[in-house]
Amino acid sequence: MKKKGVTKLIAALLAVALVGTGCQGQDGNEGKNDKGGGANNVVEVDFWAAPNPTQQAFWKKMADNYMNEHKNVKIKVSPMPESPSSEAGIQSAIASGHAPVISENISRGFAAQLAANHAIVPLDEFKGFDELISKRQMKETIAKWKFADNHQYVLPVYSNAMLFGWRMDVLKELGYNAPPKTYSEVIELGKKLKKKYPDKFLWARADLVQPTWWARWFDFFMLYNAASNGNSFVKGNKFVADDEAGVKTLQFFHDLSKNDLLLTRKATDPFENATAIMVDLGPWTFPYWAEKFPEMKFNQNYVLSLPPVPDDVDPKNAKTFADTKGLVIYASATKEQQQAAFDFVKWVYSDANNDLAWFKQTNLPPARDDLSTNKAFASYLAANPQLKQYAENIPNAIPPVDNEKVVDIQELIGKEALNPVVKGQKTAEKAWKDMKNAINGVLK
Amino acid sequence: MASPYLIYSLIFFLFPLLWAVYLAFTNWNLIAPDYEMVGLRNFIEAFFSESVRAAFLVTYKFMLMFVPIVIAGSLFLALIIHSLPRLKGLFSVGYFLPYLASGVASAIVVKGVLSYNSPFNAFLRRYLGLDIDWLGSPILAPLIIALMMAWKFMGYYALLFLSGLESIPKEVYEAAEMDGAVGWKRFWYVTLPMLYPSFYTVTILAVGLMFGIFTEPYVLTGGGPDYSTHTWQLEIYNQAFQKLNAGYGTTVAIINSVVTFVSILVFRKVLEKWGARHGWE
């Protein structure tokens, strides 16, 4: 009897589950048709914004404004899940068939992984792409984003041309009126610093001795891009880095370490406390300073500069790393949804005032060629002079490697080259050779 | 009566487990529509991987540090609470609170305290001439993580010991006293053996915990320096979500499960043998 009862219960539950699944399947299909523009012709677009309140607020406002003018589109803005990272959240969504139609906050490296797996669509194939690029004045900026297959998969939203911050108050004490521009000038300054302040360091960066892949953007690539005039590192499946510039970059790290100018221990706000006098700096730091370190004043106790270059390179031509993220459209959406999402983006970027609103709200420089010359931004940049140099250098900023093996590649830069050079375990030449061999192994 | 649990287990344990075993033999990367069966390639790769080997060894290293510290610490706390004349509940809850604290938040606090320019390190440098790279040393970094975890779990395990202490009958102590067992002897020959069930539970829980460490090394060291804090969970996360090697990541997760199962089984057998020798069948 008991066994019979259990069997009956399982049968009942299975029946309920089957009926439920059946209903869901029907609803699901209808839902899909609706989303794609069903009887009432409303196209639903799921937009995942970066998981921070300012960016969400911006996109929500843009979506509301757009929907007021375009009644046939319904854009739902929500934060992308971070479990445990936003990339992992997107991967899980794709794997489970719940990817959005469009999302922002996508780095070029991650986009390369998505593109290699046909999870996102090329934006340059949309009707109106060229118009969008010309209206937003971003021809030069986006040119560097072209992938190895000659397509554009990401529309850069912002571009932080990474700069170095220098403690001008300490530089002045050491007899300088401007930051050094070449490697030998930096070493000379470091020696003077150590003589006067043995406890201070030139640069505090614990990541220099860790293989953390993304950390290479803010140390190795800033200096390599400056030394190589922005020469690519990897193109398609080929390692094409400038060997001479690479070895010089590593040699510079070696010299900094040898002269005890690097603090490779975790330190809290070392630049703000003047424990170190140089720092890799993005504009996201300024709101933090305004709140925690109001004494940090641009052109008073700190200034900004492009990365230093080898002695035989003209500092005027220096390039840097672009910390930049953008929008992608997912392949799993219907054609109608994809086009609706693209049209929304085109609408947003057809007005420079929207970029200005973004800039004001997030402090992240819009990825435009004309940011420092367009009148729309003039008054904001005049009121925030520390952002001007970031705006001016957007065309000099090189976006990250666009290879699906970006994590392995950048981990190897740390493991085989930068970490051992800083620790004094390898010469620059050997480190570069080992790194090159290891990366070639990954790219095979 | 068993069927709801059976259905729950099927959906949330058995199907995912079977799916994971299947994935472990593929090269799926989570986002590609297609993938291939790769046979034992993932297992062979994991067997020869430096980072998997590190995760295996680091877990036992953590175990060697964490298990004695947490057992001694939680037993000590339980004895203190047990000896209190009143407010036992309040102190028990107080010591339990770190267990509820967010691992990320406590790791960030520890990171701040141990940073180069923290007041603590500035004091050590200035007055004792000690310049210690706490999180950059392959010996100190795992020890700090083990101590952090011990702090977090001590209050929880102390509750298990406390319930063990509370359940020892007074008559046992009276009989022991009549035989001359007082003070240290009483603790050593009566209290400790009577706490065997609590020791058993706490040891198995503590050993199992070592195979799932993620937050503390993720926030504090990223698995470094030189893989000295690289755990199984970090390896699985890096492979599956950073490098998009979901198939390989699943392989590592399966190996982790097997190693965890075997390790706990060995510990159980050893503890049960030891217990049997002391009258606990």
Automatic annotation (TrEMBL), chain A:
Keywords: Signal. Pfam families: SBP_bac_8 (PF13416). The keyword Heme does not apply. It comes from Parageobacillus caldoxylosilyticus NBRC 107762. It comes from the Bacteria. Residues 1-25 form the signal peptide. This is ABC transporter substrate-binding protein. The keyword Signal applies. InterPro entries: Bact_solute-bd_prot1 (IPR050490), SBP (IPR006059). Coiled coil: none annotated.
